[in-house]
Design a protein that fits this description.
Length: about 80
């Protein structure tokens, strides 16, 4: 398995979230094992939560849900 950075895992997590119906299809497309996909998605999910918490802290808003941030929102904040 390639060693992915946390940022790469986050990007892959968002790719999976927005564009894939199953882990299996994602694994086939990226030529990864299901175990590798699960590890990447776990790291990406954790990074997504960290980014989300940071955005809420900076905005002064109270977090209302556990929904992941999507590409469209992240692209607006850059």
């Amino acid at each position: 398995m390639k060693n992915y950075t946390k940022e790469e895992c986050h990007t892959l997590y968002l790719e999976w979230l927005n564009n894939y119906l199953t882990d299996t299809l994602f694994a086939e497309h990226y030529q990864l094992s299901i175990t590798e996909v699960e590890n990447i998605l776990d790291i990406g999910r954790k990074e997504n939560r960290k980014i989300k918490e940071k955005i809420y802290q900076e905005s002064g808003k109270i977090e209302q849900n556990n929904k992941p941030l999507l590409y469209s929102y992240l692209n607006k904040t850059k």
